[in-house]
User: What shape does this take?
Amino acid sequence: MKKNYLLFAALCCLCSVTNAQKKSKSSTTASAYPATVSRPKLVVGLVVDQMRWDYLYRYYDRYAEGGFKRMINEGFSVENTYIPYTPTYTAVGHTCIYTGSIPAITGIIGNDWYDPQLKKGVYCAEDSTVTGVGSSTPAGKMSPKNLLSTTITDELRIATNFKGKVIGISLKDRGSILPAGHTPTGAYWYDGQTGDWITSTYYMNELPTWMQNYNKLKMADKYYDQNWNTLYPINTYTESTSDNKPYEGKTRGEEAPVFPHPLKLYAGKNYDMIRSTPYGNTITLDLAKKAVEAESLGKDNITDFLAVSCSSTDYIGHQYGPNSIEAEDTYLRLDKDIADFFSYLDKTVGKGNYLVFLSADHGAAHVPGYMTENKMHAGVVDDKAVVTGLNSNLESKFKIKKPVMMTMNNQIIFDHNNPDLAKLDFTAMKSAAIDYLRTIDGFADAVDLSRIAESTLPAIQKEMITNGYNARLSGDIYYILQPNWFNGGKTGTTHGNWNPYDAHIPLVFMGWNVKPGKTNKTHHMTDIAPTIAALLHIQMPSGNVGEPITELTHQ
Assistant: This one.
């Protein structure tokens, strides 16, 4: 009896321990699997138009604590992020960031292109089937019709059964429309003729009341009244000895491109001029705050997306160049605007509740005049002269009148409507054209776009040209310029080439689920959208070719 009692007691103890272990394991299992998918309340995409990567550090010592410096130190910086295609233009860059894709797939191969099937030039966001809302000017006839892939913003809308809101805001239509995708709550851009923010009937039939009220303020006039002087004493600027250079562009009404820039004369007359001042970025981020408030973005448990593009940096860069006091002052002012914007999000959405990434659609070259002044190789190519000279050369060899129609996006486009072209050996003509192009000052090489794989180009150039080649839309020959040469005028800068100054862009994530730090591993612009998709646990865009950046997350 005593033995049986002891055995029974031992079994009871064993069962008690086993049940306790099961209960503990069950509790652990339950806590390991949350009831809902964790997501931020708001995602903010902040694209700074024409921001070279080195601007993150060039003015770092003078940045405020809450702007670029906050992103670098609290966020995760992907230091070696590159654009994987050419041409490096605004529409293509915004498209790539939000689709994770390339021009070969998205159909957005430039800001403009020639469509051989339609036999006409096409603007990336044009849509003749819609009309402007908030404006009767042609600026309103825009939509994402030409974009073939979905965007990460589209995918968020689909994943939330269209309950998550998406808003796109930019001075440029293409900087708002392409990031916001096909299905946004709204996309808004600036009409320089009227000084109003507008949209089109693709999105809605009437501007929301909050936007109508904002337009009544005519914010451009408010900032014109301040003129544009330097934020700090001018002698403290990096380029303080070069405020008046022949390679900087003058603003209308000015005798020289120097501070202070008189803006009062534009009040009530020229609303478009605000684009070429740092105040264009200020009103863009001010409107972004209005959108957060009016649309209640980030106020519930369904993730919203705010896509903002600051365009004034591009206009100012084109006019004055990267090594101007104007460019430096613009970034110092933008830094303060961004700090104010983040402070607003901290108070309204809550610090840690929103995820933000900052990047650029492209960089910019140094102005050739600046380079040659400092004994470095550089120059400018005249596209019209290229077409004239090429046609003259081919006419003499093949006895055909004007076989080349135009050059656009570094591409030679032949006139395939010319009946004499079909009678000739087109391959031989392209070969002769390539031979001629290689003799032009500033040209490094040229390649038959239908035979890229057979070329002897360096691998990086071959890959970038291939990624930018759309079989239905692209031209016949692609030409590569020598470093620091570009297509443009003698003042200001531009972009579009494969070189690092155009293709190396900043990429910094901050906020929800992002650990502080940085990586020097090479990533690409195409990796941004799939990274957001992975963080949100939603599908990648339909044309995505990028890969998630796994180093930045706490998971």
